[in-house]
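Incident log, structure service

09:12 report received: a user says their structure output differs between two submissions of the same chain.
09:20 pulled the input from the user's history:
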Amino acid sequence: MKRLAALLVILPLLLGADDPRSELKKMEGAWTIESIERNGAVMDPTKLRKRSVVIQGDRYVVKEGNQVIEAGTYRVDPKQSPKAIDILPNSGPYAGRVLLGIYQLSDDERAICYAPPGMPRPKVFKTNPNSGEMFIIYKRVKN
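09:34 re-ran on a clean worker, output below:
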């Protein structure tokens, strides 16, 4: 009987661990961009101070100050290792093209590394010279 009770408590936690909807919910909110690495080089952090990302469900909006610089949707697959993300911008430089990436997520930080359109999904959280890949670290905005 104790085993059954323990299973009934643990099973929902295990089932939700790899649920895309659960991952989308965890990503919701406002995020600031902590760092960006592109083609093996880290971007000047002073250029990132005004950038932010707001996520609702499977939709995202990237802003620089009050100006929207990109928006779109995304899909996640937390069952892959590393976890996979497909970014589908509907505005910005990659509008209408799919960006394949990987991600890590904690309560207050998320990291995404993605390839340019038509390139394979990255396997590690770093970029190489002339790869076109981007590695971005975000921090959650606390209310």
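09:41 both user submissions now match this output. Likely a transient worker issue. Closing.
09:42 reviewer note: Residues 75 and 86 are 5 Å apart (CA to CA). The chain has one domain: 18-140.
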